[in-house]
Amino acid sequence: MTNDPRTTAHVIDGVDSLGLVGAVEHLVAMPSLGGSDAEVDIQDDLARQWDRAGFNVTTWDIDVAAMAAAPDFPGMEVERTAARGLIARLPGTGEGPTLLLLGHTDVVPAGDRSAWAEDPFRPVLRGDRLLGRGACDMKAGMASLWYAALALRDSGVRLRGDVVLAAVSGEEDGGLGTYALLQEGITADACIIPEPTSLDLIPANGGALTFRLTIRGRATHASRRTEGVSAIEKFLPVLEELHRLEARRNDVVDPLMQRWPIAYPLSIGTIQAGDWASTVPDLLTAEGRLGVAIGETPAQAREDLEQTLARLSADDPWLAEHPIEIEWWGGQFASGRTDPQHPLVGSLGEVVADVRGVTPQVYGGPYGSDLRLLVAAGIPTVHFGPGESAAAHAPNEWVDVRETVDCARALAAYAVRFCGLS
């Protein structure tokens, strides 16, 4: 690693803050929902922008069906027939390590539009806050890595190692894009993902497994409800048991996760039951998310939930004959962990402190992400990006543009330090 203060300062000063904010607005205005045509369009748009910037751009069509059929595929929750891979390389001399800067371009749906003050895909700048779906998660981070690379290009520095930019799809529902990237054989000596961390460092996160429960009852006319079995009423003790399981699974957590009230949440997100108001419902389906502890395998987490519900079923005469059915579907995020003592964490923290004058905190995230795929592939990875994660997926999603600029400056400065000067 190289730390030349004059060169680093020159690179930092070269970050185009106005252009960066405009780039965030441009990306937010593209409604790149998972599974939509715009999810591919935004990849193509970035490819054009990066090509015009003079980066060495590579794109490829992802064979979604082939990826999804692989035994270690990380899951997918929306229908896709097409996806695009994209990297851009700033080549060094080949004598130094490669730094990967990776971000996802897909976003989640806006939800209830009436909860938004403005059109979620019409970015609005209010003081230091830029609002819009995806602003925080994670188009500001994507623009930050893009403008960090532009600053490196414009500075005229010659790095020993390569800087590789990657834009991936499908992160929100499993990790298709990063999985496909690794299948292409693309690798690096370290990776930074500018997910929203309020510019702290997150070298580890828990996992998240999507599940579906099916509970069966017996239908009858509501006027004779005692002669039927309500699937809704059978679900109520299940929900209580899930709360107890969540508490038990959070009794002891990794030190990196102790800042969170619930490090590994277990939640129900959707419930569907019944088809007629005056009929006792005979079927209920509930979909939810099971947090995976750091160091725990997805198989162990699945077994914990399955055995808990099996015991509950065995204690109920109806459920003993009609056991709760469990289906694991959609995103299957394992946990992931880069050792917080790894040089990547320490050296990036030093650079961030130099750029911002504030030493970043180091902790784990309670959500699944692409970090676990990269770490599993042997690439030390850290989250570091603009935005407060609580704003992600929320109405009136926002990001602080000052953090966005500081992120780009820190990424550019770290590339100089990590890749080295020729």
Give the tally of β-strands. Answer: 16
How is the biggest beta sheet arranged? Answer: 6 strands, mixed
Work out the radius of gyration: 23 Å
Provide mean pLDDT, rounded: 97
Look at the structure and name the CATH superfamily of the largest domain: Zn peptidases
CATH 2nd-level architecture of the largest domain:
3-Layer(aba) Sandwich
Q: Give the overall shape, derived from the CA principal axes.
A: elongated
| Helix residue percentage | 25-40%
- Alpha-beta content class: alpha/beta
**In whole angstroms, how far apart are the ends?**
11 Å
With helices defined by DSSP (H or I, 4 residues minimum), what is the helix count? 12
What is the CATH third-level topology name of the largest domain? Aminopeptidase
Domain module tally: 2
Q: How do the strands line up in the largest sheet?
A: 1-2-6-3-7-15
- Low-confidence segments: none
CATH C-level label of the largest domain:
Alpha Beta
Topology as H/E string?
HHHEHEEEEHEHEEEHEEHHEEHEHEEH
Please report which band the strand proportion falls in: under 5%, 5-15%, 15-25%, 25-35%, 35-45% or over 45%. Answer: 15-25%
